[in-house]
Amino acid sequence: MSIVENKTLLKAPAKAAHFEMTYWQQQGMLSGSAGGRNLAYFIAADNELSDLPMVLRHYYRGGMVGKVNRDWFLRTGVKRSVAEFELLDWMHGQGLPVPRPIAALVQSKGLFYRADILIERLPCDSDLFAYLSQKPLSEAGWAQVGRAVAALHRQQVFHSDLNCHNILLADPADNDTEVRVWLIDFDKCHRVTESKQQNTTYNEQWKSQNLQRLLRSLHKEQQRIENFAFTETDWQALMSGYQQAGETAQ
């Protein structure tokens, strides 16, 4: 077993029990959950591990393999929870709108391992999907989403699953006029290598593909949900914010 910690956010060393939902339930600190088949659990602030509210997430396999092997991964390369922890820590240090990682766990057995991560729970109101299911987002809000994605791309971070469920929103705070935006779920994401950054064509392609993935997710929900508040004008506002932030991907 190995644990990676963000010691600046901890009140005490993390232990394996801190990565178990039942432990926090017994402590009376479990405040909710989100997600479908693979739940993320919310842990209240001012708990025994950290002053921050936290999200606990276990790593699961997807696709056909996941039907017979839910959560064991082959021990090759950097472990998924550690990779996400390190990427989040680096991105937050660059000022990107992402949650801070608190701790990551790897439990090995033979050639395989299981993994969990604890991250900061952000002060958001909903994800972009839930928001648009209830009401439209303003033009300024869409531009803010575009700027958040552009900030990620400026730092050469490829988000492998950029969709409307992985963008969190909060209504403007006091004395603020803009909606707040964060990006989440950086499992299997990475920074583009320096050698590939020099390839202009490659850079334009992966950024464009990232944006198109987000657009497809919005179109998918638009077809599935009645009165889903998304129009092509909204996408133009997002792209305007993206381009104004210094990116040129289409």
Automatic annotation (TrEMBL):
Molecular function, one GO term: kinase activity
Family: Belongs to the protein kinase superfamily. KdkA/RfaP family.
Gene3D superfamilies per UniProt: Transferase(Phosphotransferase) domain 1
A GO biological process held by the record: lipopolysaccharide core region biosynthetic process
Top-level lineage group: Bacteria
Taxonomic path: Bacteria, Pseudomonadati, Pseudomonadota, Gammaproteobacteria, Alteromonadales
Name this polypeptide is given: 3-deoxy-D-manno-octulosonic acid kinase
Catalyzed reaction equations: an alpha-Kdo-(2->6)-lipid IVA + ATP = a 4-O-phospho-alpha-Kdo-(2->6)-lipid IVA + ADP + H(+)
SUPFAM superfamilies for the chain: Protein kinase-like (PK-like)
Active site positions: D161
Localization of this protein: Cell inner membrane
Keywords: ATP-binding, Cell inner membrane, Cell membrane, Kinase, Lipopolysaccharide biosynthesis, Membrane, Nucleotide-binding, Transferase
Membrane topology: Peripheral membrane protein
Described function: Catalyzes the ATP-dependent phosphorylation of the 3-deoxy-D-manno-octulosonic acid (Kdo) residue in Kdo-lipid IV(A) at the 4-OH position.
NCBIfam families per UniProt: PRK01723.1
Gene name, Swiss-Prot/TrEMBL: kdkA
Pathway: Bacterial outer membrane biogenesis; LPS core biosynthesis
EC number: 2.7.1.166
Gene Ontology CC: plasma membrane
Keyword Amino-acid biosynthesis: no
